[in-house]
């Protein structure tokens, strides 16, 4: 078996331009709830953009500079927006049973992305460098230690926490979100549950 | 007779025009306006970090009590156990365990702290050397060469005295008593904290090199009553849903609500292993969410709930108005969702009404 050929064939079948950049959707895609996903991504763009600028200036800049504070505010509100839209997206996808018909992997990757985002946001709160960071660091140390994470994570080590926040978790999230998007595009939007038929229809 | 075979992959729903790029750009613009607008209007919450120096100036007794707790082993960190130490006289008070399950101890003590040495003796030695303070040198020597029993007597006497202490001109005033060299040591520790140098020395001890990235020892010095008092005033303690909210009027990390909720109810709120219990409870709940597609009952729940009928109301209205399903030969297969290799077979010439023509193969 030629692995290269097999991968190329599968990729070109699943990731055709028609799937990746569709100009048509099934008619049942007709609700505002479908926009939660794209708004999640848009908010993530602002999280990443503001985060990259803050990272470039260093973790002290946003604590003493006016412009830094504004960037931190953009980061703060984009995270709030990101979680709002992601939570709505998750809840709605649950009600749509969106793991059906070959979409289990899409669901699993989506939930993993949610989990990684929660931890990433927490490490972000710890990187704020204010009382909230101090307090949550000393409070959460017992949970991280108690859970057995102490072997590889010292939550009181700002260097480690900051590195995890700006590189490690975003990198994992980037891969998961990309995979999630490709899975959604290659499988298409989950179809509606079959209609409930009335008794007079013979069912 | 020729038959047509259907499976879900060969079925195509009717399509309508859709512009993905335009939708993406519009959502970016809307998100941008909202996010930048909120940032410009309200900024973001920030409460300056608390320092040892600030506490020493405002509440000097707190600093002396924290330092004495580190010296006599009654402080939380002095007897914490892994990952910081092996407890005080091998007595570990910070190790959480569900039955005999205590992963906290698996890794030993990767972030070592000898509280008495790290927080009190080393900083005071440095102060004495730097300022050529003979009195402090002698007090430290007296304390360290005394028997454990003698040390405990001095520590215990001062600990009781600090409960009745007053503050005058920023200094801690205690009744006369037998405190040995410990009263002087604590006064000098307070002076060190007031000067701002204690934080520097503690940061130095948790960072092996020049760079100061690890704030462990500085934070752990403050972590007991000191930070709890400040946190309590702004409703940040665990039983006040602390981690869940930010400064007033700003949304906090509300997505941690399920986790914070656990701390409000027994057994999580009452167990000595509450943090470990909460962490593993959340892990189990997360696993349930992750594996919903395979959990019998839960994976059928959305179908039973009628919310999907609201989301796809236009679609169902269309099926009803056209009476599409009444005589559809695919309805049974449709009901079973064509899972796995399920296929439906219909007579030639039949095109199911809710799919596009030519979708069969």
UniProtKB/TrEMBL annotation, chain A:
Keyword check for Transmembrane: yes
Keywords, sorted A to Z: Membrane, Transmembrane, Transmembrane helix
Top-level division of the source organism's lineage: Bacteria
Family annotation (InterPro entries): Cyt_b/b6_N, Cytb/b6-like_sf, Di-haem_cyt_TM
Stretch forming the signal peptide: none
Transmembrane segments: 32-54, 74-92, 104-126, 162-182
UniProt keyword Cytoplasm present: no
Domain Cytochrome b/b6 N-terminal region profile: start-end pairs: 1-193
PANTHER family associated with the record: CYTOCHROME B (PTHR19271:SF16)
Protein name: Cytochrome b N-terminal domain-containing protein
Organism per entry: Fodinisporobacter ferrooxydans
From TrEMBL, chain B:
Taxonomic classification: Bacteria, Bacillati, Bacillota, Bacilli, Bacillales
Segments traversing the membrane: 21-44, 277-295
Origin species: Fodinisporobacter ferrooxydans
Key words of the record: Membrane, Transmembrane, Transmembrane helix
Listed name of the protein: Cytochrome B6
């Amino acid at each position: 078996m030629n692995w290269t050929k097999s991968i190329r064939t599968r990729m070109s079948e699943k990731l055709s331009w028609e799937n990746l950049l569709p100009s048509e959707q099934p008619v049942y895609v007709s609700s505002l709830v479908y926009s939660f996903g794209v708004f999640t991504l848009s908010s993530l763009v602002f999280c990443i953009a503001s985060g990259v600028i803050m990272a470039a200036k260093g973790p002290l800049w946003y604590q003493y500079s006016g412009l830094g504070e504004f960037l931190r505010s953009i980061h703060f509100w984009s995270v709030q927006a990101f979680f709002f839209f992601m939570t709505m997206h998750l809840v709605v996808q649950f009600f749509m049973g969106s793991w059906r018909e070959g979409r289990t992997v899409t669901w699993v990757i989506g939930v993993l992305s949610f989990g990684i985002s929660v931890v990433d946001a927490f490490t972000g709160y710890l990187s704020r460098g204010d009382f909230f960071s101090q307090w949550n660091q000393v409070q959460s140390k017992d949970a991280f230690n108690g859970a057995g994470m102490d072997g590889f994570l010292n939550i009181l080590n700002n260097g480690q926490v900051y590195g995890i926040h700006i590189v490690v978790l975003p990198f994992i999230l980037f891969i998961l979100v990309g995979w999630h998007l490709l899975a959604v595009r290659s499988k298409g939007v989950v179809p509606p549950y079959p209609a409930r038929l009335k008794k007079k229809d013979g069912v | 007779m020729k038959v047509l075979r259907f499976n879900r992959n060969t079925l195509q729903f009717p399509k309508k025009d859709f512009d993905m790029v335009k939708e993406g750009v519009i959502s970016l613009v809307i998100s941008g306006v909202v996010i930048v607008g909120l940032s410009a209007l309200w900024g973001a919450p920030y409460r300056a970090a608390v320092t040892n120096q600030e506490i020493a100036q405002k509440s000097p007794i707190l600093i002396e009590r924290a330092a004495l707790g580190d010296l006599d082993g009654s402080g939380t960190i002095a007897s914490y156990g892994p990952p910081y130490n092996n407890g005080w006289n091998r007595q570990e008070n910070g190790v959480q365990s569900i039955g005999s399950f205590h992963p906290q101890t698996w890794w030993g003590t990767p972030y070592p702290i000898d509280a008495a040495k790290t927080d009190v003796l080393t900083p005071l030695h440095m102060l004495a050397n730097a300022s050529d303070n003979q009195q402090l040198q002698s007090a430290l020597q007296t304390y360290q060469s005394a028997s454990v029993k003698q040390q405990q007597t001095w520590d215990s006497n001062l600990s009781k005295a600090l409960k009745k202490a007053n503050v005058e001109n920023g200094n801690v005033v205690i009744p006369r008593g037998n405190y040995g060299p410990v009263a002087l040591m604590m006064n000098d520790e307070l002076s060190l904290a007031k000067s701002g140098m204690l934080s520097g020395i503690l940061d130095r001890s948790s960072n092996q090199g020049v760079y100061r990235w690890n704030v462990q020892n500085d934070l752990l010095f403050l972590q007991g009553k000191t930070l709890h008092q400040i946190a309590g005033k702004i409703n940040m303690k665990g039983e006040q849903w602390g981690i869940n909210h930010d400064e007033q009027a700003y949304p906090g990390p509300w997505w941690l609500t399920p986790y914070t909720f656990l701390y409000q109810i027994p057994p999580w709120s009452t167990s000595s292993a509450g943090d470990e219990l909460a962490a593993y409870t959340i892990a189990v709940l997360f696993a349930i969410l992750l594996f919903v597609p395979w959990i019998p009952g839960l994976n059928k729940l959305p179908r039973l709930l009628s919310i999907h009928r609201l989301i796809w109301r236009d679609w169902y209205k269309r099926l009803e108005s056209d009476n599409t399903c009444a005589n559809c030969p695919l309805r049974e297969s449709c009901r079973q969702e064509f899972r796995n290799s399920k296929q439906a077979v219909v007579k030639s010439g039949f095109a199911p009404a809710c799919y596009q023509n030519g979708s069969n193969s």
